[in-house]
Every structure is written in C-alpha cells, then in structure tokens.
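Supplementary Data S3. Sequence and structure tokens for construct A.
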Amino acid sequence: MELHELTVKEASEKLLNKEISAKELSGALLDRAKTLDKDLHAFLAFTEERAKQDADSADAAIKQDRAMPLTGIPYAVKDNILIEGIQATAGSKILENYKATYTATSMKRLMNQLPVLIGKTNLDEFAMGSSTENSAYGPTKNPYDMSRVPGGSSGGSAAAVASGQALFAFGTDTGGSVRQPASFCGVVGFKPTYGRISRYGLIALGSSLDQLGIFAKTVEDVALIAQTVSGPDEYDSTALNKPVADYTSLLNNDVKGMRIGIPKEYFASGIDPEVEKIVKDAIKRFQDLGATVGEVSLPHTEYALATYYIILPVEVSANLSRYDGQRYGFSAPGKTLEEVYVNSRSLGFGAEPKRRIMIGTYASSAGYSDAYYKKAKLAQQLIRKDFTDAFEKFDLLITPTTPTPAFKLGEKSDPLSMYLADIFTVGLNIAGVPGISIPAGMTQSGLPVGIQLVAPHFAEEKLFTAGHAFQKSLDQKFKPTLTK
C-alpha cells in the first residue's frame, strides 16, 4: 500500500512504530499533491515551509515517545478557516491578500497533537455553492471524473482526501457543504450538532447555520478527529458546554436493536434510480446487522429549502457588510466614501455573494421582514420539531445524501437548479442536528454515492457507531481513477 492510500489510523500506527517518519509521509503527499493538483485544483495554496516545520516537530515528539494519535498526519484546511499567518481568501477576490491574524479554536486544539498542515483548499466563494465552481480562483474537479464537479462548497477538501493529497481535511457545512461533496467524492463527511465544535475562527457565512466539518476515508478516522476538536469555547458563546463522549471507544458498540427511521419525504420523485437502489441496499445492510427499520414522516421537509434560502441570505447580508473596502481586504479607489464601498464590493464579490446579499437585504428590510424572514424562522421551529419527534421513536435516520451522483461541470448554470442539489442536507442545518455521509456504492459509470445518517442533538456517537459498522460490513474500496 502506498503512503497516500493509508487511513489516518494506519498512518498513525506506522508513525508510532517508527516504520515511517512524518517528514517522509508529508513529503510523499505534498509531492503527489503538487503533481495532481495541476489538473484537480483542490488547493489554493500549499504550506510547504510550514509542513516541514510541523513534520520536524512531529518527528521529534515521536522520537521522544510523546506522540499522540494525530501526530505527523498530513491534513488540509478549507480556505475560510483561520490559521494565523496563513492566507484565508474564502475563495473570494475581496480577501485575495488577507492573512489570518489569529487561529481558529478548532485548529488550535488540533495542533496540540502536532499534525502536518500541507495546504489550504478551494471552495465556492464565501462557501456559497454546491459545486466549487463559484470560487474566484477557478473550479475544483472531481477525482473520479474530471469532467464533473466535486460538490461544494468544501469541494477542495473532499477532492484532496479522495485523491490522496491529504489524509484528512476540514471543511465547513452550512447547508450540506461537507456531506454533499463527501458523497460526490467517495469519502466520509461529518457535520456535528450546532454547538458541538467552536465556530471561532471560521469566516462567517450564516452564523446560525455554519459548522466546522471533517473529511476522512473512514468513520473511525472522523471520530478520532471530532474527539480532538469538539467541546466548549470561551470565545464562542454558541459552543455549548455539553459533555463529549469518547467516540473512539464507542465505535465497536453493537448496532443490533438500533432503531433506524426512513423519512418518506426523502424518497420522493426526482432521485436518480441508481442512487435510490444504493441507498435501499444500505438500508437492507443495516437490517442484516440487526437494526430495526421503519418509515417515519418529517412533514415540513418540503419547506426546508425555501426556509434555508431566506434565513441564510439574511445572515449573509449582515455578515458580508464588513467587507467595505475600509477595514481589511480588497479596496477600490473612489472619489467619495460611498464610491469606495460600491467599487470595492462590485469588483471584490462574485455573482453568487451579490445575489445572496441582495436577497437577504430585501428579505430583512422594513415592510418585508415579517412576510419572509419571520415566517422562515417560524418554519425553522417546525422543521426542528419534526426531527425531535422522529427521534422519540428512532435512534437514527437514514436518507440519501444527494439526489444524484456528481453532475458535470457547467451543467447547473441556473442558480435554482444548483440550490436543489442541497435538498437532502439543508434540513439538518436548519434543525441543528448532526449528520454524516458515508460512501455506500458506485454507479455503473463509476461515480460514488453516499448515504446520510442523522442523529439527535449531541448524539454524534450514534452516527459513528452505526457508520463504522456499516463501513466494515461493506468492505468496499473507493479509489478514484483520476482520469480526465
């Protein structure tokens, strides 16, 4: 097995046993990344000097027998997550020359274990999109078929892990931006409960919906990483002081007797037949593992997408008002202060941020807030209650992650058709519940398909237990072709 094919756990064992060094491992992945990424464009920047320093620190810790499970493991970070002294463009021209002045809490917790940062990954501008085609720096391609998208907005991170350019990566998930690209790229993608992992140091999109997310090849790897970065944070009042279970110790719990609900609204018309078959095969597999399965209704599902695309733009309008050409980021000259604002934002923002800023400003303006935003917030409570009621009867829910496999680059030029790509994922962000996408099969044309597991608030361990059992039983390797 080549080094880039290792899981986090396998690489950690080799490092701790001194079979390989962190310098050797990170060097191999960086070399691979710099070769592959000319075509894939998963990265916006490589942190080569930082990687050498990190690898030296990791090797020193290993030599002194003070290494931890993530010591020496090469990873990548979506370019809207802050690491002091390193670029954070958020995929936008308006932050083209910005370098972070502080480090996100989640990244500080991770760095305590001495992993090796190899680069910052591509994304839809300000994480607005489902294909990574909205990046101001060009699209990322899917490593299974480079004529297709990797999903979005965290498409760069998903593609980096799928193609072996990093052993794990971080993204953000506001409406499916980790789970959807994970499904398209054949990797595991995890979104925690809102409040489980600090948002301090994430460039804000929708503050009530944003979450840090994790990509890796296995559920086992994701559980270990989630264990490392979860918990309360004095810098983020929304990071709740809830106990974090020992996820890794619970991985091998029995799923026999686990109650899994199938939301009937997620199997409506419009699902690709191959996707539907793969998901139904996965449901049968859970039954074979001893879980009990039953149908459940989430009756307000039909309002989730509309609710999301009112709440999110309102928050976008507020969060992106700080990019005014005065405080930091891109600034265009003008004769008056107003001209500086207009010129800076006109030239600095791409089409999708402009679209959402205008929608959000309109929906929150006087005379329209009650008609749109207030109703969306009321609908949010109904959607949240749907999930709460479902979890009175079931331990987990299972759904498709996406209605289709990865679509072609340029195929969804209409914004509305692009928004529909998130139809099975946005509900979780509206309700604040945790979810995970796990590779479940391949289409006849060789494209991966994921299933989505959903758990009650702060019950991530149920996702990891069930997901780990499913992955072990499937025993299927998802390896991209990297063909054009």
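Construct B, processed identically:
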Amino acid sequence: MKTTFTFIPWRRPSRAGRWSVAAAAGIAALLLPASAGASPGHVDEGDEGSGFELHLGGYGELGFAFHDYGPNQNRAGGAQRDARLEFDTTRFVLELEGELPEEIEFEAEIEFEHGGSGVAQEVEYEEFGEVETEVEKGGEVLIEELHLQKTFADTLTLGLGRFYVAFGLLSRYYRPTDYLATTRSEAETTLLPAVWDEMGVQARLRLEWFRFTAQLVNGLDSTGFSSQRWIATGHQARFETVRATDLAVVGAAALELHEHGEVGLAAYYGGTSRNRPKPDLVQDCASPDPREVAPCGYVSAPLLLTEAHAQLRWAPVRGSAMVAWGRLDDAAAISRRNERLSNTLGVLRTPVAEEAYLAWAEVGVDVAPWLGAGPDHALEPFVRLDRYDTMYRVSAGTFDNPRFDRTVYTGGVAYTHADAVTLKLDASQRHFGTSALRPESTVRLAAGFVY
C-alpha cells in the first residue's frame, strides 16, 4: 500500500493551538522513491482509500526560577532562608494526528520532560532526606496519548487507547499559550495527575454549543497516595503494564461559548485497592482459603472526584478558574498498609486524607492595543490565586498537617506573539495553614512556543 504524506501549508494555530505542517512530507521525499511522473504529495487515484495524511504539531517550554527558601520544607519552622537558582528544560512535546482509511483517525503525543530520560537521583525530604535513585519512566519520556477514533455523523466520536482524562482544565488547556503564569496551576498539578492520561474507551458527543464526554479507564494505584499530593501520584507510571482490575468512570459536560471559551462540570469515580503492585489490601478472614488471593475480598476504597471550571476570553480580558473536591473511602486502611511498603517501590508512605480540595483562578488584561501594538501582539498583566489542602479531612488518629494547607499568590506579565511564542515573568508567594511556617517566595521567567 502506498503511503501519502499530504503537504499542508503553514498557518497560525487553531483554537486547539495546533499547526499542521509538512515536515513529514520532507522526510518521506528523502526516504521513499517517487513514482514516475508523480509530483510530491500526489495521491494515486487508482489506490482508492490508501492515502495517509499526517499532521505534526506540539509545543515546548523553558523555565528559570529564583527561590528565597531552601529545598527542605519538612522542618518545624518551614524551609530555611536561602537564595538559589534553578534552570529547567521543562518539556518538549510532539503531537501527531493521522487520518487512516475508513475515516479512522489516530492521535499520539510524546512528551520529553526536563531534557531527556535515564536514571535520576533526588533528595526526598518526606523520607528524612534519603537520596533516591530511580529510572524516570513515568516523568521523562512518555507517551501521553495514543488512541484510535472514528466520528459518526459529525457529532459522536468513539475512541480506544490512551487519552486524556476529561477532568479539570489541564485536560484541554495545557499548552504554554493557554495559561498566563509561567507554570501550570500549582493547585491542580499538586492534587491531580498532570496532564492526566489513562487507557480505556471513550465516547464524545459534540453539538453546536454543547460537549459531553464519557470514559471508562483504568483506576489509580493507592500505593502512590500521600499527604503531600493526595491521589496525584497514584497515576500508574512505574511498571510496564497498567493494572485495570479496578476501573473508573468519568463524565464531563461543557457549554462552549463560541470563541469566548467554555464552562463545564466533571466527575470521576473508581476503585483504588486492586491496582496495587501486590494484592496486599485485602479483608481479614477468620479462616482464609489458601487457594484464594483475597478469600474475603478486597478493602473497598473508591475515590470520588468532582470539579467545575471556566475558561473565558473576552477581549481584552482573559481568565481561567477551577474548583475541585474529592473523597477517598477507607483512607485509614490505605495509610496503615502504605506505611509498611518496601523502600524499593519509591513511594512516600505517608498518611493519606479522606478529603482534599483545590481552587484556583487567574485573570489578565491585554494592554497591547492601548500601547499601539498590532493584532499579533498581546501583553497581559495578570494575577493568579491557588488555594488547596491535601489533608482537608483526615481519619481519626491522623495528624492534619497544616503545611499541606497552602495558598499561593502570583502576579506577573505575559507577552504572546501570534498565539505561537510566549515570554512570561511572574513572582509568587506561598503561605501555609499556620503562621509558624514562614512563607516561600519565587520569581520565575519562562519561554514557550506552539507549532
């Protein structure tokens, strides 16, 4: 079968922020022999349905930060005063979209975080300053999307594979031009996996102004739950295969406000006790059957998450907001079992709360038109507020640590050119749930692009 790489002209990003380019066609021209008399990008009319069209896009980010506090936040009075710089090749992402025969489409996204892959060491102050060595399978180079889908009657799309979980703002607005601050929301990326992708099946219904998504995906692994990030690190990334004995269902609805953004709601519900690496969260039995892994069943520890969000653009104002709340049943049983986990598993082994919440919002005003700049330029002073508590409600006997109750104030300015290149500068200060912990300040500079 012949493979055709269709040349697509360079254009500004669509609402989703992707450009379709002809880079793949240039590679094909070098590697594939051209048919006699055929021009580049030619589709052989005799091979009906054999054409293949590939769209390439993506984005990248670079970050620079100054912190006035030491890296060890696990101290009685908070982190010590310090002055330190951090440089980060934050991420580079390749996004591929292909059109296959029978109008079947595929999407793939590959992300390179922090400059590459390999074995990394980090000092983990939640584990008394231990130096942990780990292969960064889940955080350095990963496939965030890989799925097939087919659309029926231009309204219903069915998909199968790995895709983004339809929960939170970051499931759609995750490129550097989508948010105003130098980093994604601290509240959302602390409590939830970011960007959250799972394997399963999904159905999306899209009308002129309404969008509904239903998903059935693998559940989380509760060995990764902790005081510091609640259920976020329960996202399965440490092993070659994904455990799906416990599944989760997701439902999301959104009203699209034409070119002015959207408002939406979403809910997630799924089990967390049967996707652990070992079947160690089981009910006790008076007379267990040695032939059964869990003769009296597993501990029931379902997770419920709910959220509401808005993403608005009404020139010259742009803003985003989100609130989310979640409850984990039988968090006490998970905490007791997790504190006995092996060091080699690379998890924090700290108590996990029954409930957690987050709220964040940012708003900016484009002053470029008032300064006489052209339509391709945007200069947006902005403010952001992040509020979250990963130990909002805890089980009896569990210490509600106030250092996980956090409020972050951020202010800065973002410059964007042609919706494709952005340069941002901001300053933030993090406060805790007790005045005994000193605030932490950070100044960041970030550069990003979308192609």
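The radius of gyration is 24 Å. Residues 23-31 form the longest helix (9 residues).
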